[in-house]
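[worker-b] picked up task from shared queue
[worker-b] task type: protein-ligand structure
[worker-b] ligand name resolved to S-adenosylmethionine; SMILES cross-checked against name lookup, match
[worker-b] sequence length check passed
[worker-b] input payload:
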Amino acid sequence: MSIGAVRDWSILRCPSCQAKLDGTDTSQQCTGCAQTWPVRDGVPALFRDSWVRGNDRLMRHIYDALPSLHDPAVTYMLPLWQLEGSEGAMRNRYLCRVELEKLGPRADGRPLRILEVCIGTGVNRRLVEQWLPKGLQVDYWGADLSEGMMAVCKKKLAKQGFSDVQLVMADAHALPFADASFDRVFHVGAIGNFSDPGQAMREMARVAEPGTPIVVVDEQLERDRSHNLWVRAWFKALTFYDSNPHCPTEAVPPGAWDVLEEQLGRFYYGLRFRVGAAPTDIAAERAVDPAPAATPVQRPRSRGKASSPAG
Ligand SMILES: C[S@@+](CC[C@H](N)C(=O)[O-])C[C@H]1O[C@@H](n2cnc3c(N)ncnc32)[C@H](O)[C@@H]1O
Ligand SMILES: [Zn+2]
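[worker-b] inference finished, payload out:
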């Protein structure tokens, strides 16, 4: 089976009408509106080019053209540009909000599923493993629009031994999954270029199990702190497509609760929220937080403010 190939077709849905799909290894057809969707090397393309507009389209071209620059830029250049921090420390500051250590096998026997919206080159997969209770099996799904980033992602996952990640080409504004399919949903690094961040967060909430944490991370220059010209110029360059890079707390879905906005570092915010009732499958959510079986190299530290619940 090819790296990134989908194995569990049961949760995939038509991104146009949400009906179930049916088909073969090379093409899937919607059982509702009858549109067909191509599948290449086991990875379905569940979006239409014409849907991808504005900054989403621009960023897709950039990521497709320069996918191999992403990881070195984030690992080596970002700490220089923002004059602080390591990549791993920053990533652990948001992964702690995903509450992976609270997961346990589901009582209904269904596999535990984690969705990374905009998986990019797949850097988070290995870090997520460090937060999961030891030995816990999860189905990890990644959605992204860039074929170039997906190609780098596949190579990396194969090298790291995570070749069972299931990949889908999809637009974050129209996730091709059934409601409540995932036990955890998170997104890092692109919502600032989305044409409609609110729509994307509603989609994340729709495909998440009710009550589970949904975590969104992207650029925001730390407030209440002075920044020199070097820092301000790099932040501006990195967010050239956005006139007001900020945490989109105003666009969390209606009824969101447990809303937490925090600054994760000089350039990045983290936003966590939940929608719907608290999880009922108590086997999948440990009520108390036991010592995680796997402790990340550096325990996350957060700073900044917690906002009040939106609803
Ligand atoms: C900065 S990378 C982040 C990758 C990864 N999440 C990480 O933390 O390293 C942003 C990714 O978002 C993807 N992307 C941008 N807009 C998108 C959209 N509307 N739908 C799906 N993916 C999108 C890009 O193709 C790119 O792979
Ligand atoms: Zn359809």
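[worker-b] attaching auto-annotations
[worker-b] The first helix runs from residue 54 to 65.
[worker-b] releasing lock
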